[in-house]
Each structure stands twice: as structure tokens, then as C-alpha cells.
Amino acid sequence: MIRHEKKQIMKKVWEIFWEGLSVKKIVLILLGAAITSFGLYNIHQQTSITEGGVMGMMLLINHWLGISSSLITPVLDLACYGLAFRYLGGQFIKISILSTMGVSWFFSLWEKKPPLLPDFSAYPLLAAVLGGCFIGIGVGLIVRQGGSSGGDDALALVIGKVTGWRLSRAYLFTDLTVLILSLSYIPLQKIVFSLVTVTISSWLIDFVQNTDFSRRSQGRPKEAVLEE
After folding, report:
1. 97, 172 Cβ separation under 8 angstroms
2. Radius of gyration of the chain from Cα atoms?
3. Local structure of 59: helix, strand or coil
4. Which tens digits make up the pLDDT trace of 48-65?
5. pTM, rounded to two decimals
6. CA 184, CA 178: separation in Å to the nearest integer?
7. CA triplet 93, 99, 103: central angle to 5 degrees?
8. Which of 65, 99, 183, 185, CA to CA, is 20 to 30 A from 213?
């Protein structure tokens, strides 16, 4: 009897989790996860381009306080997701779980192979531009489906929701804040390239999320998820 009740509860939880997730939405989330993780592994990680947002804050805290990144990252992400649940709701968290798992799985897949792109370390500006494009398009696809790929996205979406800012402005605010603080231990030259990549990615995330690509709309902006 107890086993039967447990199965019924698990079945109900499973149905609730997948409710509202169409095959098309799941495919687009996983595509975004694949593009994002591909850029992070093949460009950002290979060329040591630092990040803003939660990832940059993790590196900053690790440098000055010596706290392990493995401890800092989940704390920062959980704090951001706690805010996201308060302002964006449970559906957002549900989709974010799927997208975060997708990013993690694809990242582990790329790590099993040598980098598929050339090493752009000698061309940091090119690396910054390409990296920004991969992150912007990949994360943009995920955000367009109503979720996030990590704490960075969740925090930017909450800021946009509370302040009414465009998503690109919210992303830039969090990234620039961390990058400015990172000047305390990272040379200005490297920060400049990071600024290039976060500017491009912020604009692309906003563009991909808010543009209606259907023929009938002829490219007119759709209402942002945050304004619904």
C-alpha cells in the first residue's frame, strides 16, 4: 500500500515537472545549452577570458578570501535562484533545472574531446567576440523558453523584473559591477576583453529573447517575458 502511494506521488511529481514543456521547448532549451557550453569550453576556457556575474564573483571571492570555488558556486547560485523563485515563480525554476542539467551534460561531453576550435589565445579580441556570440545566442535561446542557464541569468532576470530594465541592461549591470571589482587582481587589458564579450552576449541575449522571428511579425519585437 505504501509502495503504491509512493509510486502515485512520484508519478504526480513527474507529470507536474513536465507540464507545459513541449517537445519544441525542450529541444530549444537543449540546443541553447549545447551552444552555451560549447562556447565556454572551446573559447572562454581555452583563452582564459574571465566572466562577470556569478562566475566572476566566484573567482573574485576565491582570490581574496581563499574559499573553494566548489563551495562558493552553489551558495551564489542558490541565492540567485531563491530570488528568482520569489519574483519569477516555480515554472522558471523548473525550466532552469532542465537547462542547467543540459549545460552540465553537454559540458562534460565537450570535455571528453580535444577543443574543436583553434586556440585563439593570440587573438584575444576575436576570442572575446566569438565567445560573446556563442554565450549570447545559447543563453538567449534558454531565456526565451522561460528559464536560465545559471545564477547569472536568474539574477539578471530578477533585476529586470524589479526595475523594469531591458534584459541587456540588467546583464550589463551585474557583469560590469563584478568586472570593476575584478580590477583589484586582474590586469586592465584582460578586463577590456571581458567587457567586449559580456557586452556582445548581453545584447544578443536580449535580442534572441525579445525578437519575434515569425514571418507574419516581420521581425517586430515581441513582449518580453519579464513584462508579462
Report:
1. no
2. 18
3. helix
4. 777 777 777 877 887 788
5. 0.79
6. 10
7. 140
8. 99
